[in-house]
UniProtKB/TrEMBL annotation:
Record protein name field: Transcriptional regulator
Domain HTH lysR-type, chain residue ranges per copy: 3-61
SUPFAM superfamilies recorded: Periplasmic binding protein-like II (SSF53850), Winged helix' DNA-binding domain (SSF46785)
Organism this protein belongs to: Pediococcus pentosaceus (strain ATCC 25745 / CCUG 21536 / LMG 10740 / 183-1w)
Keyword Nucleotide-binding part of the UniProt annotation: no
Gene Ontology molecular functions: DNA binding; DNA-binding transcription factor activity
InterPro entries named in the record: LysR_HTH_N, WH-like_DNA-bd_sf, WH_DNA-bd_sf
UniProt key word Metal-binding: no
Family (UniProt): Belongs to the LysR transcriptional regulatory family.
Length: 293
C-alpha cells in the first residue's frame, strides 16, 4: 500500500501542535481538511489513531503516538533520499569543496590548478562535527579538515600547515621585532574576520587579555583597517588573496611572523573512499600550490 506523505505530515504536525486548529494553521490548510485527512489515514491503516471520547477534543491514542513517531522517521528518510539524489546529480558534474577554516579555500580560489572535473567552492565553513555527514550525504566531495579522518568510508590526505602572522602598526615596538609569540601580543585589540574556524579558539585561548573585533563583512574590515591602527592576522595561505595584499599596501603596518609552537594547523583533504579516483588528482594539484615555508 502506497502511503500518502501529506497525511503523514498532518499526523506528525498534530502530534507536535496538539489540536486540529493549530495543525491546520501550521500547515496552512483548513481544519476540516485535517479532520478528513486523519479519518482517511485511519481507514488506510485499518486502525484507530485517536481518542475521541471527549466531545470536540481529540488526542492521539497509544497507537497514534507510535504511528506519528514512525511517520516522522519516514518523512525524514524521504527528505534525506531527495537531498542525496539531488546532491548526487550536482556532484556528478562537479567537485564541491568545503573547509573547516577559510585559509585553504582562499588559497584554492586564488591559484590556478588543473582538475578532472569542474570545481565549486563552498565558502561557508563546515563545522568539524558535520564533516562526515556532509561527505556521506554528498553535500561536498572534498573537505579540508584540520584532523585526519580514517574510517571504513572516509580517508584523508595530508596537505600542509597553515600558520598566522600579524600586521602591526609601525608605532608599536613589536613591529621592530623579527618575530613575536602569542604572549608578546597580550592585551592588544585585533581586527579579525568573523568566521575563522579552529583559529578562533587558538588565538582566543593563547593570547592573554586580548580583545577581538570580529568583522563579518570583508569590505568593512578593509575600510576599518585602512583608517585605524588595529593589528590584524594573516596566514601563509591568505597571502595570495588580493584582499590581504590590499590591506597590507597602506604602509602603516609591518608584517611580523608569529613564532610560536601553538601557531599551526595541519590540514588534510578528506573524502569518501568511493570518490578517491576523482578527488586524488585534484589533491595532488593542491599539494603543489601549498606554501612550503
Amino acid at each position: 500500500m502506497a502511503m500518502n506523505l501529506d497525511l503523514l505530515k498532518e499526523l506528525v504536525a498534530f502530534q507536535r501542535y496538539g489540536t486540529l486548529s493549530s495543525t491546520a494553521e501550521h500547515l496552512m490548510i483548513t481544519q476540516p481538511t485535517v479532520t478528513r485527512g486523519m479519518r482517511r489515514l485511519e481507514d488506510e491503516l485499518g486502525v484507530s489513531l485517536f481518542d475521541r471520547r471527549v466531545s470536540n477534543h481529540i488526542k492521539l491514542n497509544e497507537t497514534g503516538v507510535y504511528a506519528a513517531t514512525e511517520a516522522a522517521k519516514l518523512l525524514k528518510a524521504e527528505r534525506d533520499f531527495t537531498e542525496r539524489v539531488l546532491n548526487y546529480h550536482h556532484l556528478n558534474h562537479e567537485i564541491v569543496i568545503g573547509s573547516v577554516a577559510p585559509g585553504p579555500v582562499i588559497l584554492l580560489e586564488n591559484s590556478e590548478i588543473s582538475s578532472p572535473a569542474k570545481v565549486k567552492i563552498n565558502f561557508q565553513n563546515v563545522f568539524p562535527e558535520k564533516v562526515a555527514d556532509n561527505l556521506k550525504n554528498l553535500k561536498e566531495k572534498l573537505i579540508f579538515t584540520n584532523q585526519e579522518i580514517m574510517t571504513d568510508e572516509i580517508e584523508s590526505v595530508y596537505l600542509g600547515v597553515e600558520y598566522l602572522g600579524v600586521e602591526i602598526g609601525k608605532s608599536n615596538p613589536l613591529s621592530k621585532k623579527t618575530s613575536v609569540n602569542f604572549d608578546d601580543l597580550a592585551g592588544m585589540s585585533f581586527l579579525v574576520v568573523q568566521d575563522t574556524g579552529p583559529w578562533q579558539a587558538i588565538v582566543e585561548n593563547n593570547i592573554p587579555d586580548a580583545a577581538f573585533l570580529y568583522q563579518a563583512d570583508l569590505d568593512a574590515m578593509s575600510e576599518i583597517s585602512r583608517n585605524s591602527k588595529f593589528p590584524y592576522f594573516f596566514s601563509n595561505l591568505s597571502l595570495v588573496s588580493s584582499a590581504t595584499i590590499e590591506r597590507s599596501d597602506d604602509g602603516g603596518r609591518v608584517a611580523v611572523p608569529i613564532d610560536d609552537p601553538r601557531n599551526r594547523l595541519e590540514f588534510y583533504g578528506s573524502y569518501l573512499k568511493s570518490n578517491r579516483k576523482l578527488v586524488q588528482p585534484l589533491l595532488k594539484e593542491i599539494n603543489k600550490i601549498w606554501p612550503q615555508n
